[in-house]
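Notes from hallway chat w/ T.B., transcribed later so I don't forget. T.B. wanted the structure written out for a chain they're using in a teaching module, and asked if we could keep both sequence and structure tokens in one place. Agreed to drop them here.
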Amino acid sequence: MKLTTKPGNVEALAEEAVVAVCALADAAGPERWSANAVEDAATALEVLAGALSEISPEAAELLEVVPAAVAALRERVEHAPAAAGSTRRANTATDPAVLSTGLRRALTAHSLTGHRVHQLGPALLTVTLDPAHAQALAVLLAARRELPRQAPAAEDEPRWGAGPAETAAASLAVALAAYGPGTYARVLASGQVTAGLSPTAAAQVTGALNARPAPAAGSPRPRRRGLGNGWKGIDAGR
């Protein structure tokens, strides 16, 4: 990545943007955000991420999560406008840091290694895995919820047949949808699969991964070994 060191109009505008954002951050507060203000700030974030994505393919890949995060934020504000600025972390179980740590441990416990878990504010957590591990997670989550195997919808058919990464992303999206709203799964430019989860979905997925699966119905009970009739060395008649 090669950047110019010459001052120019972009540098001046970027400096103005920083000043404006700092003023906004100083003026804003939990009780001061309105739906319109959130929409404007989210749009600015999305536009800025799009501009920075033009620096290089690597920059575009790093910033791919921003549009999804902005979309999740907009959806959250639309569904709960009154509570958008008054969320309190009285319950540590909903704290993003606690959720991300628990999710990392749950994934590792199932040998889903090489994952990356990021918290993008209080409304969104992302998990990035290679296609094989994403597919394994989809199968595991579907089994924990006993989801019926469904054929993909007509609009999703190209994704299911486009390749291993696309198939894994589609499978994971279907599995995650059963664990709460605000979830998605998509393929990054690197070929890895990234999934987005709301705090509710992240907590439910972590709980499902930590829960022990129930024994299959009709499975034979394990035979108990002990000293009983017919055991060598024991006189059964005494």
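Follow-up for T.B.: The chain has nine helices and four strands. Might be a good example for the class.
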